[in-house]
Design goal:
Elements: E1 2-4, H1 12-23, H2 25-35, E2 44-48, E3 56-58, H3 59-65, H4 72-78, E4 88-92, E5 97-104, H5 119-135, H6 150-165, E6 169-178, H7 188-202, H8 206-209, E7 213-219, H9 220-227
Parallel strand pairs: 5-6, 6-7
Antiparallel strand pairs: 1-3, 2-4, 4-5
Helix pairs in contact: 1-2, 1-9, 3-4, 5-6
């Protein structure tokens, strides 16, 4: 089990996702509900990263926190240990819809490579990524998914694990922060250009991702204004 406590974020995506989840979840929820019709009228419970330790979850711990512990054995066969460490995890109060979030605050953060060295681990990863590519009707990619955009790829693989292999209504949300003036300010246009190149290199299309992979853009100024709005009501499902 992998539960990873985090320090309070001082800048970048770690800071902003902690602020959203703990101080103004309704702002995030409203953005998500605009994209996912089945969430209309449903309560969203965020289970990470919650204060005071802002813990993030990976491997069987991420399944446990979502009440999906019955899938742990299958996950251990699908992906080696030290899989994706999720920036945020949520679910509906009735445990029917699951939200997996990867957050980024600037373009350099989208670049990553697989660090696995063990041959068996690499074999398992490659096989699972290949199955994910088939599921997404991936065109012939220009790059190996283990290099360049590995975080994006392994998050897609875990979505495949939940949605296709186990028929859970799960959504992968890539949350992109705009105009982080205290770090590397990134505009919507800059994000759009970088993300389109990323998808092209990975052989992905908007059609293949539609309905299951969601891109959401939130301006950090919008978060700041909500943090100072004392009238903001809490979400119907309290943070646990």
């Amino acid at each position: 089990m992998m539960i990873v406590p985090q320090k309070r974020g001082k800048k970048g995506s770690q800071k902003w996702i902690q602020e959203l989840i703990n101080a103004c979840p309704l702002l995030l929820n409203n953005h998500i509900r605009e994209k996912i019709a089945s969430l209309s009228g449903r309560e969203i419970c965020w289970v990470s990263p919650l204060k005071p330790d802002f813990a993030e979850y990976r491997d069987d711990a991420f399944l446990n926190i979502l009440n999906l512990q019955e899938l742990s054995e299958d996950l251990s066969k699908f992906w080696p240990k030290k899989g994706p460490q999720w920036d945020a995890l949520g679910k509906t109060a009735d445990d029917q819809i699951f939200l997996l979030i990867e957050a980024k605050a600037n373009v350099p953060e989208i670049v990553s490579n697989c660090g696995a060295k063990d041959k068996e681990s690499l074999r398992v990863i490659s096989e699972s990524l290949a199955k994910t590519q088939d599921w997404l009707n991936c065109r012939r990619p220009c790059i190996d998914w283990k290099n360049g955009f590995y975080q994006y790829a392994n998050r897609l693989a875990h979505l495949y694990f939940l949605r296709e292999k186990h028929q859970r209504e799960a959504y992968l949300i890539f949350l992109y922060f705009l105009n982080d003036a205290n770090h590397i300010a990134t505009s919507r246009d800059a994000w759009n250009s970088a993300l389109q190149l990323q998808k092209n290199l990975m052989g992905l299309s908007a059609k293949s991702l539609a309905g299951k992979v969601i891109d959401i853009f939130i301006d950090t100024k919008e978060i700041g204004s909500n943090l100072h709005r004392t009238s903001l009501a809490p979400d119907p499902c309290p943070l646990k």
